[in-house]
Design goal:
Elements lengths: L16 E6 L8 H8 L4 E2 L2 E5 L5 E9 L2 E9 L4 E6 L19 H4 L26 E4 L8 E5 L11 H16 L28 H14 L11 H11 L6 E5 L2 H9 L5 E5 L9 E10 L7 E5 L9 E3 L4 E8 L4
Antiparallel strand pairs: 1-3, 2-4, 3-4, 4-5, 5-6, 7-8, 8-11, 9-14, 10-11, 10-14, 11-12, 12-13
Length: 334
């Protein structure tokens, strides 16, 4: 793919303003959820309404037992349960750190050198193409290891060919072509959602139609001997868009972990992510991320991806410690 020696993780900044307290009864409806994590008779306290920078509202309930702070429950503005997070810090500044991280957490989550990066980006739904794929799988309560997960269904799965970056980009392009009305000229017809696991040393790994798209993306990105330079990824995918009649959409890169989870959950779009297969090494692989999963004690979620590896088909999970940066589609040119 491509190689870098520097290490950087997303810079995390506070994005919430705390609203007025509202006198609410204990949130009895969430007790079964909380007991899966705490195995205790914990109760929720007074609700607070919080807003992010785009003014989207969330409901925050501190979790207490015998007056002792245990963590919180967070719901969206419609009352949908989003997350239970356990912590002994009695502070609302830790609210949903997996999606909206806070400045307090910077010291423990990333190297000091990364602090010079720009502030966290704001998620605006109108900056992303329409997606006609309402299918997703999520569970906040019913998994054996008490994890909480969300992922998109119907995400293409292809295997390594001509490089990991063009293979991941082909899955990304196939998703846009299949589910986004503005991108339906990207491919003649539909690519398959999944190709069979290839036979060892098979030349045509994914079948002709998929291989043609991967090869064209490799050409657009300047991929040589399976390696793609960082600077060729966004421009290469945009060149592919232009060749196939798609205008007014752009590819951007980011290291903002909170924006990534919003793009997947709110915009229903996968993202092309660069990772380090060795957490202490160089960036050396590209995957397609379409979901995330975390446990009640995690600050940042694990990401769910298509790995492009025949050794890791299906839903592949990797730690945020391996995350480097990602590319996403938007209608904003600057």
């Amino acid at each position: 793919m491509f190689f870098r020696s520097s290490i950087a993780l997303p810079l995390l900044f506070s994005t919430f303003a705390i609203g007025q307290k509202t006198q609410d009864p204990m949130c009895d409806g969430y007790l079964p959820v909380l007991r899966r994590f705490t195995k205790s008779e914990a109760w929720c306290g007074t609700k607070r309404t919080i807003r992010d920078k785009s003014q989207k509202e969330y409901e925050y309930f501190p979790l207490r037992e015998s007056g002792r702070y245990l963590g919180y429950v967070l719901c969206d503005g419609t009352g949908e349960f989003l997350q239970a997070y356990l912590s002994d810090k009695p502070s609302t500044r830790e609210i949903l750190p997996t999606i909206f991280p806070f400045a307090d957490e910077v010291e423990t989550l990333q190297p000091k050198a990364a602090k010079n990066k720009s502030a966290a980006e704001i998620f605006f739904p109108w900056h992303y193409p329409e997606v006609q794929n309402p299918n997703s799988s999520y569970s906040w309560t019913d998994t054996s290891d008490y994890s909480q997960y969300f992922w998109l269904e119907g995400v293409p799965e292809y295997y390594w060919s001509s490089g990991c970056t063009p293979t991941a980009a082909a899955m990304f392009v196939s998703y846009l072509d299949r589910y986004c009305p503005d991108f339906q000229t990207l491919i003649d017809g539909f690519l398959p959602l999944k190709t069979p696991l290839p036979i060892l040393d098979e030349d045509n790994v994914n079948g002709n139609a998929v291989e043609w798209v991967i090869d064209e993306l490799a050409d657009c990105m300047g991929t040589k001997d399976g390696q793609t330079l960082d600077i060729g990824i966004c421009g290469g995918i945009e060149n592919y868009f232009a060749r196939h009649g798609v205008e007014d959409y752009y590819m951007k890169s980011s290291t903002d972990y909170s924006l990534l989870t919003c793009i997947v959950r709110e915009a229903r779009l996968p993202v092309v992510v660069d990772i380090k297969t060795d957490v202490y090494g160089d960036v050396d692989h590209t995957v397609l991320v379409y979901g995330y999963v975390y446990r009640p004690y995690q600050v940042l979620p694990d990401l769910i991806c298509r790995s492009t590896w025949t050794s890791a088909p299906g839903n592949y999970f990797f730690s945020p410690n391996h995350f480097f940066d990602y590319r996403y589609v938007t209608n904003v040119s600057h």
